[in-house]
Amino acid sequence: MTQIKSFDHVGVTVADLDAAVDFFVGLGLELEGRTFVEGEFLDTVCGIPDSRTEIAMLRPPGGGTALELATFVRPELIPGSPNAMANELGLRNVCFVVHDLQSTVDRLAGEGYGLVGGVGRHEDTWLMAYVRGPEGIVVSLTEQIGPLSAG
């Protein structure tokens, strides 16, 4: 018997919440809301006494798993590795299915967000690319270009 009922959200900590929200809204996510969280609940969950954070919740159109973006007001943020590659331990990317991968990649490049590698093709079924967004966040963008095999 599984203990998991559903997949609720993925959380990402950022320094510039406005820039991160703008980036993900530009990809097509919808902002559900923003709020500050502090007090016993947050201190208990994150294990950091006297913490305060601002969070923004975003979801894909029509619902689905949310993306929680958070920035800490206190304590100070600790820099991560903004140039982390796929073989570095930790959560490396969040993947979104897009309608036109190349136009999405081109638009993001125009906004200053480049490819980590290149656009890959998998068995005439999928195109995929990693794009490094604000603060080094890697988003995997994929487009289904052919039928999935039955195997």
Automatic annotation (TrEMBL):
Keywords: Metal-binding. CDD domains: VOC_like. It comes from the Bacteria. Pfam families: Glyoxalase (PF00903). The keyword Metal-binding applies. The keyword Methyltransferase does not apply. Residues 6-144 form the VOC domain. SUPFAM superfamilies: Glyoxalase/Bleomycin resistance protein/Dihydroxybiphenyl dioxygenase. This is VOC family protein. It comes from Pedococcus aerophilus.
